[in-house]
Design goal:
182 residues; mainly beta; OB fold (Dihydrolipoamide Acetyltransferase, E2P); SOSS-B; DNA-binding; DNA binding; SOSS complex subunit B2
Length: 182
């Protein structure tokens, strides 16, 4: 993942003596807070363009936050010249999500029971589809379901081909290898 550093917060010191900084970072899809621990946080400057590997996101204090995972790496690859967007700001505090998580109203995999409510208060972000973010055919969708229906598929239950199938003529080499691959 490649992004630009927009802001760097003041360091907080943990009980173990580690310095933790929260930085606002962005790419062309939006912005998020990045939590940086110890030495990498000392070296960051606003305007740095970074590549991070093995990163993950998690909710901390009701805000979505980007973290570098175990064995992850952060590298400076440039400065200042990058197209980015500050909106949507994915780390916007979301009290609805906190209420759902505290109230125990979660579904399988600790996902909120009502996924539409997750983005309900985030400005500029519309409701997201249920489940894994992919659209689902809920009996009446615009594409064929597993059961054939009249009109959506051909008469024998197969999806009609977009163009007629034409047999491919045999190669002139009589089944020999492609002469370009020697």
């Amino acid at each position: 993942m490649i992004f630009i550093v927009l802001e760097i917060g003041r360091p907080n010191v943990t009980k173990d003596g580690h310095e933790v900084r929260s930085c606002k970072v962005a790419d062309k899809t939006g912005s998020i807070n990045l939590s940086v621990w110890d030495e990498p946080g000392l070296l960051l400057q606003p305007g740095d363009i970074l590549r991070i590997s093995k990163a993950y996101v998690s909710v901390w204090k009701n805000c979505l936050t980007l973290y570098m995972g175990k064995g992850g790496d952060i590298q400076k690859i440039g400065e200042f010249c990058m197209v980015f967007s500050e909106i949507p700001f994915m780390s916007e505090p979301n009290p609805d999500m906190a209420a759902q998580l505290v109230g125990g109203a979660t579904g399988p995999g600790n996902q909120p029971a009502n996924p539409q409510a997750v983005n309900a208060t985030t400005p500029g972000v519309g409701p997201r589809p249920p489940g894994n973010g992919r659209q689902q055919n809920l009996n009446g969708g615009a594409w064929p379901s597993a059961a054939p229906t009249s009109g959506a598929m051909g008469g024998n239950g197969t999806i009609p081909a977009p163009f007629p199938r034409v047999p491919v003529p045999p190669s002139k080499g009589g089944g020999k290898r492609d002469p370009r691959k020697r």
